[in-house]
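call fold(seq) -> tokens
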Amino acid sequence: MPISFEMSETTALAREHFHAMAAEHLRPISRKYDVQEHDLPTEWVEWYWNHGRKGGPEKAGPSDGFIQVCVQTEELCWGDAGLYLRTPFAGLGGSAVAAAGTPEQKKAFLSVFQGDGPPAWGAMAITEANAGSDSAAIETTATRDGDDWILNGTKIFCTGGEGASQAPGGFVVVWATVDKSAGRGGIKAFVVPAGTPGMTLVGLENKLGIRASDTATLMFESCRVPMQNLLGSAEVRKKKAGASTGDKGDKGFKGAMATFDASRPIVAAMAVGVGRAALDYVLEELARQEIEVRYDAPPAEQTALERDVIEMQAELQAARLLTWRAASMMNRGRPNSLEASMAKAKAGLAVTRITQKAVELLGPLGYSKKLLVEKWMRDAKINDIYEGTQQINQLIVARRILDYPSSMLR
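ret:
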């Protein structure tokens, strides 16, 4: 079935709306919170919570669904990716609840983001010191105790972890094992509301890029949550003797991993936004210097600068279209694990190349802090790392294309 890459009128209006929001509210404070890394950007948080999340295009019509979410993400990250991640919303934790939660759980944990209470955040806690790309190596435990689960362990690099663990109404979705002998089959996801006793904010990372984002280390010590805070079934599926060690049939773990099929296109859209910010500035600077890019000239006659700019534009558009394809498949309820990983891998590479080339083309000024271009280069690299590294996503793509289980392709 062909996919149309023409935006609906509603999405086009939304694009204009969120671009204006980014230009007016994010860009002006971008450098401030790059320097003041761990300060809460109160002017953005309060404005967004009181006005931004409730506003929208005046003319409403048919929506492009998840594609519109990706368009919104691109525009806001054109403004500032770190501040986008600090925005009070459900985040990755909300994606997990939306993907695996019951109607009752969705109402209980997500309704706060539509209410009139104070700002709230959602986050996901997966990574551990010994469990990064291999989520199946998680050591945080969840032990059944009557009608509760008790969590013990430490999570690192938790995006949005400060707000989600501290602000009332927020929550952290914690991945833990209920049975280590079951491997992937024993891993489950638990919703831990902000302020739950036993969940402690241990520290915040000092980062190269996306510095406005609160990247936290969270410790769980005898942290008790109700049984109904488990996302999905408590059933543990153990591998039978002689069976493949692949992912097939491992519904519990695959259900949790399905969260990434929704979140990876969003991360790809973030990368596109940062890359476009850098490319836009390069094009503006060329226009100021009255340097024309001759798109119709034969490659042999083009200057090195012209070829670089054209390649940057092609890379950006390829990443955007792959992102929209993955989003379109979600809209239609089709499995998109392959496409989501392709979009994430391509966008991570593209934004890294585009921002580095932008710094190079602008020379010493591009490398200085007089411009935001060097910041965009620093912000870019994380898109090639979190939500699955470049290598992991390429591995997923290869497995899906070849139909290989993880035991056959590592």
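Confidence is low (pLDDT under 50) at residues 241-252.
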